[in-house]
Amino acid sequence: MRMMEIGILEDETAQTSAEYIMILGGIIVIVLVAIISYQNYIRGLGGNITNGSEVQSVENTLQDINQSLTQ
To answer: Helix, strand, coil: what percent of the chain each, to 5?
Structure first.
């Protein structure tokens, strides 16, 4: 019985697995915090892109190029 107890105490695979699980959990928490904090930024960015003057300028330029090529 004494040898079995020593073998269990020297076995560190469970501790290593627990450490890997904690590291993975920490990474998941960091990713979730980043997603939540940048969520409003991404939503606001979409409105600026579709309603921005740059998009209209590029569209006008492309229409001018198209008209010059079709003539």
So the answer is: 95, 0, 5
Report the length, in residues, of the chain. Answer: 71
Q: If you ran DSSP here, which 8-state letter would residue 68 be given?
A: H
The pTM for the full model equals: 0.46
Q: What is the distance between the alpha carbons of residues 42 and 47, in angstroms, rounded to a whole number?
A: 9
Q: What is the CA radius of gyration of the chain?
A: 29
Helix 13-51 vs helix 53-70: crossing angle, to nearest 10: 70
Q: Tell me how many degrees the CA angle 7-12-18 measures, rounded to the nearest 5.
A: 140
**pLDDT per position as a tens digit, 1-58:** 455 555 556 666 678 888 999 999 999 999 999 888 888 777 777 666 665 667 778 8
User: Residues with Cβ < 8 Å from 55, sequence gap 6 or more?
Assistant: 49
